[in-house]
Write a structure and sequence with these properties.
Chains A, B: Its cofactor is pyridoxal 5'-phosphate. Two copies of one chain form a homodimer. By secondary structure, chain A is of the alpha/beta class. Chain A is built from 15 helices and twelve strands. Chain A has helices at residues 19-22, 28-37, 59-71, 82-93, 108-116, 136-147, 170-179, 199-202, 211-214, 231-234, 256-273, 275-291, 312-320, 327-334, 357-374, and strands at residues 15-16, 75-79, 99-103, 120-124, 152-158, 184-187, 206-210, 222-226, 295-297, 306-310, 337-338, 347-351. In chain A, helix 12 (275-291) packs parallel to helix 15. The complex binds pyridoxal-5'-phosphate (2 copies). Residues 20, 81-83, 107, 109, 158, 161-162, 187, 189-190, 210, 213, 222 of chain A line the site of one pyridoxal-5'-phosphate.
């Protein structure tokens, strides 16, 4: 028992470049909301039957007005995360023996959501090393092939994907999907809350975001936007409990997480406007890494803070270093830099999002020193 | 936009007797954990592939050792809440055209989870006014009848239920279910974290708890315990991502909620030991209310802090009062007492859990004054 109770977070005063962590850091407003709304079902004090209907605090307005506008969709809902949003869509649209088409860069949660919904999965391959790009026309090929095997009830595009931070031509992919009468879901776990993105401008049918990943919110929480046409399938009500939406089991983020999402929202709206600067900073970082012969893969020039690197040099070092492939992790840890997974040297990803340039300079210097030291 | 950002909780300094709220108030340790672990995916800094495998913070030990012992089960998992745990079980066990048997006092989320899992629902009726009891032998009847229509894949008992706070003879119900080869799930959203309850002692197959309802945790979060025999169905892994459990979409409470659950856990273990005192206090409160002719329905003497009351008198007043049926809510609000739903007068529920006796005395005095004033 003594090991439970309050526990400290070890990485608290580290520079954190883990892609999972950079977009989920709380705003000051969200930190205050945490304390105010921390208790269990705090938001349910004035509930009249469903989370999205709560007027005090103003969840109703947030979900019915603000969020649809922000996502560029007609109808929005709160979920327990991006994966739960994807599962809700897949589960609502699933039919026996049907298929979903995923991009080859899809996050594992898209795949697992499809498995849980009982859907077969077909994948649109990426172009391989070094670009790993998703080419729109391949969607046509894969959908066509898959239609021979069964119904294709949904296509998914990861925008950007969580490995390379690539941003494919989503508009064209939406158009292609619609030529085959297949709705398109944009998995924007790494976009919504970081960069400008609107479902309607792209022409997609669903859009999914992650509060704890990219909206400066405590988690788990996600957002789901959809076209009105799909709301009857997604928002189907219980036969017995007329207010309760089946796919959301009545209510999803029934606690503090919705309040940190709302608290950070003005901050998120502002930071999205600064996206150009974040891209510029990412490109600067990528160039600096390449000076060290750590090569950035994926889209180039890059359009996102999430970047994937390849380093033959670090890999060679790992073969001889005393701590083996853990040397990089340990050297970075010594310098209070966190976020590159222990054991990785040849390939790793990181994110520069909202990390101040001075901190990124420390990161670059660290790589430089480490390479020097071991070479 | 100005209405978003930080928002105050209006009921902050109220006496809160809403059954949703009394067991979810954060412990001091949990309040500290909130601030420490508030950021997005904070707990994932040292993840090696799945939430339950994380050793820093000690989620692994919590889920694999502490929680099974606490719940009296063989295998435990963290979920996004009680309803999500119930859905996971129903979804994993569902077959086309199959049935689930629910007690007539089941929470709406059990029903909606069954609908989402595509299961038909049969109900074991309660005994009606005034006891609303669930009699074990009725499970035999209903299972027998339902088996004529199709497979019965699961039975659910709400223990206690969320309306009357009744505690049926769960052991006998488990025995009966097993005579028909039907596994029993105990929905202990109002038990786990409040009162002593062990799955194995009752002889059930699944047990579900709610962190934000009864374990002094921020939400949404729940716990699911099961017998080993069911783990292959429930913990089925992805075909492609070998570490990821399909029913949990890889990870569930991937953020601050698991840390408040862990932070409060020692406090919760201690308070469960004080359960007798809570029952005594509830009985005392019930007796005081009955002196005011506000009659407690359900089990008598009562065995839980959640109680359902009936008042002909308050109902009569509501017909004539200026504010109509809202008079009671408004009078209580004036006295900074929250938790009885606006508009209710004849029937309402409340909880005395962890509410100090002095505060309950204020509540009783309030009812007395209100009745006096309007009579
Ligand atoms: C591309 C992508 N999609 C979805 C997710 C899952 O997000 P959530 O935790 O909100 O389910 C992730 C998480 O890493 C991701 O990288
Ligand atoms: C008896 C009962 N079960 C389940 C639930 C749902 O709990 P959760 O919010 O953890 O899904 C409730 C909530 O009110 C309840 O009263």
């Amino acid at each position: 028992m003594p090991k439970f109770g309050f526990i400290e977070r070890q990485t608290k005063d580290f520079i954190n470049i883990d892609p999972l962590q950079t977009g989920g850091k709380l705003s000051e407003e969200a930190k205050k909301a945490l304390v105010e709304w921390g208790d269990g079902y705090s938001v349910c004090d004035f509930c009249t039957g469903r989370l999205e209907e709560i007027k005090t605090p103003p969840i109703y307005d947030f979900v019915h007005e603000t969020l649809p506008e922000f996502l560029g969709c007609e109808v929005a809902r709160i979920t327990n995360g991006a994966r739960e949003a994807k599962f809700a869509v897949m589960h609502a649209l699933a039919r026996p023996d049907a298929w979903v088409v995923l991009d080859g860069n899809a996050h594992y949660t898209s795949y697992v959501a499809a498995e849980r919904a009982g859907l077969n999965v077909a994948e649109v391959p990426n172009t391989g090393h070094p670009g790993f790009r998703i080419e729109p026309d391949r969607y046509a090929e894969v959908i066509e092939e898959t239609k021979k095997k069964g119904d294709v009830v949904l296509a998914v595009l990861t925008y950007p994907d969580g490995n390379y931070g690539n941003l494919p031509d989503a508009k064209r992919i939406a158009k292609i999907c619609h030529e085959y009468d297949v709705p398109l879901l944009l998995n924007c776990a790494y976009a919504v809350g970081r960069m400008p993105v609107k479902m309607k401008e792209i022409g997609a049918d669903f859009i999914v975001g992650s509060g704890h990943k990219s909206m400066a919110s405590a988690g788990p929480i996600g957002v789901l936007g959809m076209r009105e046409d799909y709301s009857s399938a997604l928002l189907r009500k219980s036969a017995k409990y007329k207010k309760k939406e089946i796919e959301f089991l009545g209510c999803t983020a029934r606690g503090v997480t919705i309040m940190t999402l709302i608290a950070s929202f003005p901050h998120v709206v502002e930071r999205v406007k600064q996206w150009d600067k974040e891209v510029e900073k990412a490109r600067w970082f990528s160039a600096k890494m390449e000076e060290l012969e750590i090569v950035q893969l994926g889209d180039k020039p890059h359009n996102h803070d999430l970047m994937f690197f390849e380093s033959q040099k670090l890999y060679e070092i790992s073969k001889k270093a005393k701590k083996g492939r853990y040397f990089l992790y340990k050297e970075l840890k010594k310098r209070k830099i966190h976020g590159i997974k222990p054991g990785l040297t040849k390939h790793f990803k990181l994110s520069t999002y909202m990390v101040p340039k001075e901190q990124l300079e420390i990161v670059i210097r660290a790589f430089e020193e480490i390479i020097d030291r071991y070479s």
